[in-house]
Amino acid sequence: MKKSSKEIRDLFISFWKEEPRNSKEIPSSSLVPQNDSTLLFVNSGMFPLVPYLNGIPHPLGKRIHNIQRCVRTNDIDEVGDNRHLVMFEMIGNWSLGDFDKTNQIPWIMEFFVEKCGLDPFRIFVSVFAGDESAPKDDTAIETWKKVFAKYGIKAEYSDNISKLPKPWNPEEGVPEELKNWKYRIFPYSKKKNWWSRAEVPGEIGGPTSEIFYDMGRVELIQDVYHINDDSGRFIEIGNNVFMEYKLDQEMKWVPLEQKNIDFGGGLERIVLACQNISDPYKTDLFQNIIFKTETLAGKKYELSKSLNLNLEVKSFRVLAEHIRSSVFLLGDGVTPSNKDQGYILRRLIRRMIRHAHLLKIQDNFTKSLANVVIDDYADAYPHLSENREKILEEIEKEEIRFRKTLENGLNNINKLFQKVSQNSQHDISPEHIITKNLDTIYELNGKKLNLGEWAFYFYETYGFPPEMFLEELSSFVNKVSLENYKQAYVKIDDQLVSTIIEKFKYLSEQHRINSKASAEKKFLGGLADTSDETTKLHTAHHLLLAAIQKLLNKDIKQRGSNITSQRLRMDFNFDRKLTQDEIEAIENLVNQKIEESLPVFRLEMPKVEAEKLRAQMEFGQRYPEIVSVYIIGNIKLDKEKYQISEIIEQYDKVFSIEFCAGPHVSNTSKLSEGGKKFKVFEHVSIGANLKRIKAGLISVSK
């Protein structure tokens, strides 16, 4: 019997809580990281745990698990196929210096096969092949052999990654060839089977072992087929990361003292496999959204037997994926804007409206679809229901705004096509318009571009896909033909189509490459590194927030941050511009606390106790029952055995107290090493009642 997504969620959480695993569940974090240097969105379950992977004890112990909502933005334009998603849920478990891969591999296979009901004959795995950094992962290979044997499969390792059984039809059942296939363990290089965030001293990393499920069909032709190709036949359902190494000062990977395990699996793909469906939008994760869209569009979501993607299918999928992603982002406090997280949200909503236009949905629809998402996910994510009113208000407001933009875009397209007509002078036959004007430059609103470049301009400026541009061009050409030749010119010439599409694809690919390079640089995740300088600025960040609250307003809350080894950035709520005198007062107070050599304490305590201490919380963040708290102040305290009352009695000597995972320096005096002082570089307004400060530690001589 096929399991529902709710059943799979519940099975995962309960599986890790049971004996002999005895793992503790941690909450799903907000999609918007608060104390982070480079990440735009939380993009993995591992991200909030970076400090603990680096050795700081976790308040709940060494075995933890959760289901984390995540967002990845590199492939937004690919959404519409049956593989790419922007928002997804990551099931994850971690061993923080506790059990090893000989435990993890059998347990995760047990979950997939015995709890989820996946067919072990359809499972294949990858391991690290080895190189100068680390040897081949023989332990993982031998462990996988034993695990497969438990399920009656004599699995073997092969250096030839294309040693696979023939593709098969899922509707006809698992073929005997697949059941008897022995080559199931394949090696991959560091590019595929090694995890690390960045190549800087102090970073941790290690080999990985991915788990793939055979869906039977090949959807995209490949030169060489293997389990980690792009054919669509095999889907990755999980990845075990064995964090066993650390980069030393000579940039060599050396054994890590605290060896960790980080497992992550995409819930959507696991549900797909468990429900034995090749299209994620037919799983119960998206089914109700699709049903509602069918009602709104007055047409059915139907796939051809060949699974070829048609435009209507793509539009259904874009609406379903983007409404879900948008609701989750709005639920975590993101609002549409032209910067950072808000820009991504705006892009998703506008792309969704474009595709609603293609489905002939004329009336406002986002509020209606958003309600479906909230209802479907309220049990797993109660904050969506709690924020329903705000979510619906913001998404409808953005839809109304973009529909006006859409009209402006259509008006400008018509103006452009009038230029095309005028350029044709007396010969305005469709053939002339199409074949004689491919490279002609047309000027509109001060821009001079050819038709292919205009197609990309309208995509970037108004969110029009090239199909919409061509659709409007077709309508224009037909209108000209009817007016002048009394007949409709039904088909646009292939030369025009190919020229515009080729130019669009070229410009789009250049834009994608540039955006992806920027994204990869920005979205590395976690602190920029674990260097001393970054750690010092993290502590300075706590001092800055406390100083702002004490000097400006005690109700100020941090609304975002970014910390690198060069500078810190803090966003906070405040209703006016800071004066120069206020900036100098903030600098002086922070430097005073640095000079006072205040000790920095890290304590673990129940969340309710931390709330009694009025510890600052990250905006929008949810915390487990046991939390870590950093206190900066001239207090006397035994970290190993203390009473909350001791801190309360000395509260007048506490300068800063925050919920935080760290890391931090042990004493504020370390911030002045090398003769440095705290200095504000920039203070600006970034929105209604939102301010931003950039600051750092600079030598006094500067």
TrEMBL record:
<dbReference type="InterPro" id="IPR045864">
    <property type="entry name" value="aa-tRNA-synth_II/BPL/LPL"/>
</dbReference>
<dbReference type="InterPro" id="IPR018163">
    <property type="entry name" value="Thr/Ala-tRNA-synth_IIc_edit"/>
</dbReference>
<dbReference type="InterPro" id="IPR018164">
    <property type="entry name" value="Ala-tRNA-synth_IIc_N"/>
</dbReference>
<keyword id="KW-0648">Protein biosynthesis</keyword>
<comment type="similarity">
    <text>Belongs to the class-II aminoacyl-tRNA synthetase family.</text>
</comment>
<dbReference type="GO" id="GO:0004813">
    <property type="term" value="F:alanine-tRNA ligase activity"/>
</dbReference>
<dbReference type="Pfam" id="PF07973">
    <property type="entry name" value="tRNA_SAD"/>
</dbReference>
<dbReference type="InterPro" id="IPR018165">
    <property type="entry name" value="Ala-tRNA-synth_IIc_core"/>
</dbReference>
<dbReference type="InterPro" id="IPR018162">
    <property type="entry name" value="Ala-tRNA-ligase_IIc_anticod-bd"/>
</dbReference>
<keyword id="KW-0547">Nucleotide-binding</keyword>
<dbReference type="InterPro" id="IPR012947">
    <property type="entry name" value="tRNA_SAD"/>
</dbReference>
<dbReference type="GO" id="GO:0002161">
    <property type="term" value="F:aminoacyl-tRNA deacylase activity"/>
</dbReference>
<dbReference type="InterPro" id="IPR050058">
    <property type="entry name" value="Ala-tRNA_ligase"/>
</dbReference>
<keyword id="KW-0694">RNA-binding</keyword>
<keyword id="KW-0067">ATP-binding</keyword>
<protein>
    <recommendedName>
        <fullName>alanine--tRNA ligase</fullName>
        <ecNumber>6.1.1.7</ecNumber>
    </recommendedName>
</protein>
<feature type="domain" description="Alanyl-transfer RNA synthetases family profile">
    <location>
        <begin position="3"/>
        <end position="695"/>
    </location>
</feature>
<dbReference type="GO" id="GO:0000049">
    <property type="term" value="F:tRNA binding"/>
</dbReference>
<keyword id="KW-0436">Ligase</keyword>
<keyword id="KW-0030">Aminoacyl-tRNA synthetase</keyword>
<dbReference type="GO" id="GO:0006419">
    <property type="term" value="P:alanyl-tRNA aminoacylation"/>
</dbReference>
<keyword id="KW-0820">tRNA-binding</keyword>
<dbReference type="GO" id="GO:0005524">
    <property type="term" value="F:ATP binding"/>
</dbReference>
<dbReference type="InterPro" id="IPR002318">
    <property type="entry name" value="Ala-tRNA-lgiase_IIc"/>
</dbReference>
<dbReference type="Pfam" id="PF01411">
    <property type="entry name" value="tRNA-synt_2c"/>
</dbReference>
<dbReference type="GO" id="GO:0005829">
    <property type="term" value="C:cytosol"/>
</dbReference>
